[in-house]
Amino acid sequence: MLLQPLHEPAADRAGVQLLLLRDDLTHPELPGNKWRKLKYNLQEARRLGHHTLLTFGGAYSNHLAAVATAGRLTGLRTVGVVRGEELGQLPLNPTLAQARADGMELHFLDRATYRRKHEPAVLDQLLHTLGPAYILPEGGSNTLALPGCAELVQELKADFDYLCVACGTGGTLAGLLTGLGGQHEALGVAALKGADFLRDDINQLTQQATGTTYTNWTLHTAYHGGGYARLSPELLHFVREFEQRHGVLLDPIYTSKLLVGVLDLLERGYFRRGSTVVAVHTGGLQAWAGFRERLTLPL
Q1: Of 225, 295, 289, 213, nearest to 259 (Cα)?
Q2: Is the pTM of this model over 0.85?
Q3: N6-(pyridoxal phosphate)lysine modification sites (predicted)?
Q4: Active site residues
């Protein structure tokens, strides 16, 4: 597992060693946290005799893309329930087009019904229409996602004080907390606006998985950059400059916002002087194809 030192002036001024954990390099087609969250869910689907994975996501969802790839690699049928009417999604953006190319059947759901996707009546109707399936929640965050993410901590063969990760549904951070077992400190940076609810979701996940509610973590909600899947000119500029400095491309939804947050917190003196801070690059680079198309980006 590659730990890349980030020589940033903010870290030098703070007296902190800043490292980037390149979890985006762990698998050629399923890198980062998405594979970790799927690993034990795939085993459970097999154990229960399922041949189909059914899951949910927006039009640019890293999770949908990962499940489609996992289905192709494992021979499982995959169904993606996409938020929004089909006519509004045509022609398919690169994320959905690749998911379909990987064999995923796309089923479009109007936004009002999509918001009710956890209700038994809605799930029963989807299974009636699309066939029996192992259901994965949006973002892949359930209790079986946690042990795969916890393994990252076991693989991290280095001394550190803080472990930092971007948060969408909170499953990755919850998994890291179970791996840390109350040791060290964890920090989450929310990628979406109005994400205070994630604190309860993360506590609920760790309680369900381990019977423990951890206190060695914080969630920062001020670095969403305008909202989920919003790419401001400032964030794009940051991504380009970061790549020039370190030779690493950050994804536009998660890890870019994480690093913006970590560098700002360094400037603010948040981290203890003399400490080691590890930020996790969780992958998600497939999202750039959609952003390039939508915004005609040269990046």
Answers
A1: 225
A2: yes
A3: 34
A4: 61
